[in-house]
Specification:
The chain is an alpha+beta fold and 545 residues long. It has eleven helices and 21 strands.
Length: 545
């Protein structure tokens, strides 16, 4: 019998939830719709939605509902960070710089018709202007701070007052808690799942090279899409209760995140969709091109211009899941997603302080070479295009060896390291090269090479120097119509686009995006190499010896 038909159970759940979440939201560090039909967790008219909500609630109940046979009790262990207590007072927002010294607040007068705005990590004048729907030329710099490229976080600016209504001003999560940042590798997904012993701990799918358990799927999606695993775990728990309980019918549920869309079945596929929607919100806001949330019912609302990219990412995801009437309660409410996140992992503001800013002012790419041997000639087969899944910036370049092999036959010409570094991941066609050598894919510059065949691919944990072989181009790992090498960049877990403030340059060749999704060219000293098939001479690029 579901909780929707048991008033005593519902009453007890509501009472315990009110007690558990009596501490309100603390001040957080300022930092295409979903397919298919989504069950709303607040509207309990649907039996399955009520059962899932009950399963989630069971985590927070101290006792008293043991006689409900539909949902087994989860082990009441403190999830996430053992022993961490919720802070008793709000944390004032800070604006860290590269040196960790806060920028003093502006204390002068603000001109009429203008808003005093403090820049956030990863912003430029152009993106701020996009958020406020104005022109960069209308932004004023009262302190004459450096405004070239990425701004120092906390730089004061005068911005024309917004001429639109944006209803959702409250921040959600800092950028470092959305991308796979500094502390993401310390999240013990397997340990959290094992201690909770919910359905996730017993779930498995057969993917790619074999059987993956539920925790392994979460870790895989987090790493490959560069999404914080805490965010994925909290989303899964909020939508299904899979982490800390075993909801009725879970073993037959093909849509644990409630997307219920054609060809989207199982945990892996659903987490991929979640990562895609987070990326659309995060990078769309980072680039200044995204301005509105689109809700489940196709209605829209303007995004508040002072939000950070991480907050917009989560808002964008939840807008696709809910209608406006249910958006705020499910995201910000007393028993909403943010309260659940805090209960699982601790206060987001403190976690964000530990994670540091994602994109510092003055960020520059290290010296990189073309990813093939000196003296060799390869073909430029794709200009700047999405770095990973849909929604990520156009930050990847494709090269193909000129060995005249058709289709997806593995090349016998190896790709090489573009810089010295430590291989921190070598699986599913991908090699992640950590240039700072600390072994953490969430810190500093990381170069991702994709479509390298398993046979001959360099082993994880190997230190390489520039020009050392990494593996042989193929079609392995992701969708590909022909043998090639996909190369892209991350910094502190954030995918970096080829244009903008950190140009993609290899051996002096600058990547330039064209009008089409894969269009573009490389340019150096007045010479241009264009995109095309490898048999066209205008695509050939020779690396200097």
């Amino acid at each position: 019998m579901s909780s929707a038909s048991n008033p005593r159970v519902n009453s007890a759940i509501q009472k315990r939830l009110r007690l558990t979440f009596s501490i309100g939201m603390l001040l957080i560090l300022v930092a295409c719709n979903y397919p298919g039909r989504v069950e709303n967790l607040i509207d309990a008219t649907a039996t399955i939605a009520a059962a899932r909500q009950t399963a989630v609630a069971m985590l927070y109940l101290e006792s008293g509902l043991d006689d409900n046979p539909a949902v087994p009790q989860a082990t009441p262990l403190p999830p996430g960070i053992p022993g961490q207590q919720a802070p008793t007072q709000a944390i004032d927002p800070v604006f860290p710089t590269e040196t960790g010294t806060p920028i003093p607040p502006y204390t002068g007068l603000v001109p009429a018709g203008m808003t005093l705005y403090y820049s956030q990590s990863g912003e430029t004048l152009e993106t701020i202007a996009g958020h406020f729907r104005t022109s960069p030329s209308l932004l004023q710099n009262p302190t004459q701070a450096n405004t070239e490229g990425f701004l120092a976080a906390g730089t004061p600016l005068f911005v024309p007052n917004a001429q639109f209504y944006a209803p959702y001003q409250q921040p959600v999560l800092a950028d470092s808690l959305v991308v796979y940042g500094r502390n993401a590798r310390d999240v013990d997904v397997l340990g959290i799942s094992s201690r909770a012993d919910g359905y996730l701990n017993h779930y498995a799918e057969y993917l790619f090279e074999g059987r993956f358990t539920g925790p392994e799927i979460v870790e895989l999606v987090a790493l490959e899409t560069s999404t914080d695993p805490r965010l994925l775990l909290a989303l899964l728990e909020y939508q299904s209760g899979w982490v800390y309980a075993w909801p009725e019918g879970a073993d037959e549920d093909k849509s644990p995140l409630n997307y219920e869309a054609d060809r989207v079945e199982g945990l892996y596929a659903e987490l991929q969709v979640a990562a895609r929607e987070l990326a659309r919100g995060y990078y769309g806001w980072r680039e200044g091109s995204l301005q509105t949330l689109r809700f489940k019912d196709e209605s829209q609302a303007a995004i508040h211009p002072e939000l950070n990219a991480g907050s917009v990412a989560v808002q964008y995801l939840f807008a696709g899941l809910y209608t406006p009437a249910h958006f705020s309660p499910n995201l910000y409410g007393e028993s909403g997603f943010l309260s659940l996140y805090r209960h699982m992992f601790g206060d987001p503001a403190r976690l964000a302080l530990d994670g540091s800013e994602v994109i510092p002012a003055g960020l520059a790419q290290p010296t990189l070479t073309l990813p093939f041997q000196p003296g060799a000639t390869w073909a430029l087969t794709s200009g700047p295009h999405i770095t990973w899944q849909v929604g990520t910036p156009r930050g990847a370049i494709d090269f193909a060896p000129r060995d005249d092999l058709p289709g997806c036959i593995v090349s016998n010409i190896y790709a090489t390291a573009s810089a010295p570094g430590l291989v921190v991941r070598s699986s599913r066609g991908a090699v992640a090269l950590d240039l700072d050598g600390d072994g953490n894919e969430g810190t500093g510059w990381v170069i991702i090479y994709m479509h390298l065949a398993r046979d001959g691919r360099i082993a994880n944990g190997t230190w390489v120097d520039t020009d050392d072989p990494l593996g042989y181009p193929s079609c392995e790992g992701g969708y590909s119509t022909g043998t090639h090498l996909h190369i892209t960049r991350k910094y502190n877990g954030e995918w970096i686009g080829a244009g903008g403030s950190v140009p993609f340059v290899m051996d002096g060749w600058l990547a330039v995006a064209g009008q089409g999704a894969y269009a573009g060219w490389l340019v150096r000293d007045g010479e241009t190499v264009y995109v095309g098939t490898s048999d066209k001479e205008y695509t050939w690029i020779r690396r200097d010896e």
